Amino acid sequence: MDQTAAASPPTPIQDRSGAARPRVAIVLFNLGGPDRPESVRPFLENLFMDPAILRVPGFIRPWLGKFIARRRTRAASENYAILGGKSPLLELTEGQARALDAALAGEAAEYRCFVAMRYWHPMSEEAARAVAAWAPDEVLLLPLYPQFSTTTTGSSLAAWEAAARKAGLSVPTTTLCCYHSDPAFAEATAALVRGAWDKARAGLPEGVPLRILFSAHGLPESIVKAGDPYQWQVEQTVAAVVERLGIEGLDHVVCYQSRVTPQKWIGPSTEAELERAAHDKVAVLVCPIAFVSEHSETLVELDVEYREEAERLGVPGYFRVPAQNSDPGFIAALRDLVRGARAGGRALCSFAGGRQCPKPFGDCPHARAKARVKEAA
Ligand SMILES: C=CC1=C(C)c2cc3[nH]c(cc4nc(cc5[nH]c(cc1n2)c(C)c5CCC(=O)O)C(CCC(=O)O)=C4C)c(C)c3C=C
Ligand SMILES: [Fe+2]
Ligand SMILES: [Fe+2]
Q1: What is the CATH number of the domain that holds 148?
Q2: Which of 297, 298, 299 gets mutated to test ligand 1 (max ligand atoms within 8 A of its CB)?
Q3: The pTM is what?
């Protein structure tokens, strides 16, 4: 969708009493994905040249980033070929944007969602131009990553700040950094897990135990050790969802998928958990816990590669929980998060208002903002 073309010129919108309704642009952050086979390599170059992803001195990053991207292109292209040569992420994110627009219609403010992808179009600069053309009174930054990581939300925020400046956009901006254990988000996720759990149980012979693998995107361990709160937040999400599931004695584990560099990544890996499940003779229900849309890592890695691996290992059953996409419960949770963030009146907020991450996580954006204030004093 051309977000600029769709933006209408500012018109004075009034509520029933005749008072002007503020225009609020909601910017949805996501990672983005190639839109055709030829885009795979430049998409990967954008990703691996991001200083939030490739933490090496600036002078070697362009060279090394391009080198890693070139080496990864074949494997990634094979994955996208299974999906028809492109990622479905943009269409699904636009679906979420339109669903959230509809959920927020008729509020005291006039809302409009825009999509800003990090590594492929529409990227922040395009999105910021479209937002500026719509002439909002406020901007609300809403990551489609429930858990904050410097590699995802943190990177998107940096890209947005630069793009907004370039587009001359200087209206008050609210940033929602995370909603890892927001009650409505956790309940919507638990409802999807419950549906998949019931289907899996019905498809399994009696007596075969079922274990939930909550599978999140992995991160290099060094990033977590440097203070990234992502792993802690993933664990909070899982605890919140498990609590709402209320299944007595539930066998479950948190694990991490999609390792793409040779460094040590956080674990256990989802593959290692498949091996353990085979050893323990338990079936698995895999729940993507850090992705709110289907994309190559759910549709290919989970549905094709890990399923085949589970079969090869002799895991007695393999099932998957669908990602949220435009699930009404999830969209309602986002709507309430938008309302809460605006009502809270903070420029930077979590789902609960203030900082949630414990002290050691110095890369929590609240901790960084505090450090910046101290430095300036
Ligand atoms: C060092 C590399 C990477 C880190 C760290 C990383 C973190 C991270 N990523 C997501 C979500 C997504 N990643 C996607 C694609 C993707 N990610 C990496 C690398 C890292 N990600 C690569 C190389 C790719 C391209 C695909 C591939 O080569 O396999 C996507 C989009 C997928 C699509 O269908 O287009 C998402 C979404 C999270 C949540 C995260 C850390 C918290
Ligand atoms: Fe990734
Ligand atoms: Fe935090």
Answers
A1: 3.40.50.1400
A2: 297
A3: 0.95
